[in-house]
Specification:
catalytic activity; Retrovirus_Pol_polyprotein; Nucleotidyltransferase, domain 5; alpha/beta; 5 strands; 15% strand; DNA/RNA_pol_sf; elongated
């Protein structure tokens, strides 16, 4: 028969203590001030959502091969973008204080967008939808975010980030005519009931790829093309 002795009592009491006292996560409260601690290491990003000095949620991820080559200030701002977007359901539509151990970000965030380097501009534009205040905090006081960035989750093969990386690395100098005159994808081709199937990943990404090329061409001061209106002779019959 099982014998419950004093050692079991002590272990059970210790378990109850561990699951009812810090550092367990606390419940989010919309009426309380919200803080995000963000940090970047050489190979990872970390973010912690904090209220009243207690963690509400934590997250981390590995840097991609391209992101590892970023300057440190770019990694630190990328950590803020990651943390803010990762906790979008908490951070959107309310004031949020962002704590970072990289002091230059506190100043750059207050300057006009045009005063920042191009890569930082792209990240800052992603943050424009949030009401953020970036403040400097010593790295020795950001133990949670620092630990998360150094001992990050190994998610470098994440599918969503792979797609984004593929779109970001497209050549912006490609001819805009390729975008406007591109052939329709097979996703829009009528099929019989027996031939219907789910669209492939390339068919879904194709319109996004074309839109991104168009956006980059315009941003690079590409000359405006003449209007491509249809004539009455080329207009197809109405359905």
């Amino acid at each position: 028969p099982f014998d419950w002795d004093k050692s079991h009592d002590a272990a059970f009491t210790q378990i109850k203590k561990l699951i009812t006292e810090p550092p367990v996560l606390k419940y989010y409260e919309s009426t309380k001030p919200l803080i995000i601690q963000c940090d970047a290491s050489d190979h990872g990003l970390g973010g912690a959502l904090i209220q009243e000095g207690k963690p509400v949620a934590v997250a981390s991820r590995a840097l991609t091969h391209a992101e590892i080559q970023y300057a440190q200030i770019e990694k630190e701002l990328l950590a803020i973008v990651y943390g803010t977007e990762r906790f979008h359901q908490y951070t959107y539509g309310r004031p949020v204080t962002v704590e970072s151990d990289h002091k230059p970000l506190e100043v750059i965030h207050q300057k006009p967008l045009s005063a920042a380097p191009r890569r930082l501009q792209k990240m800052m534009m992603r943050l424009h939808q949030y009401d953020l205040t970036i403040v400097y905090k010593k790295g020795s006081e950001m133990l949670l975010a620092d630990t998360l960035s150094r001992h990050h989750l190994d998610n470098s093969t994440d599918e969503a980030r792979s797609v984004n990386s593929d779109l970001d690395q497209m050549d912006s100098s490609e001819d805009i005519n390729e975008i406007l005159n591109c052939e329709p994808t097979t996703m829009h081709t009528p099929r019989s009931h027996n031939e219907r199937s789910r669209p492939t990943a390339s068919q879904i990404i194709h319109p996004v790829r074309m839109a991104r090329k168009l956006q980059r061409s315009i941003s690079n001061n590409h000359p405006v093309l003449p209007s491509t209106r249809r004539t009455n002779n080329t207009r197809g019959p109405r359905v």
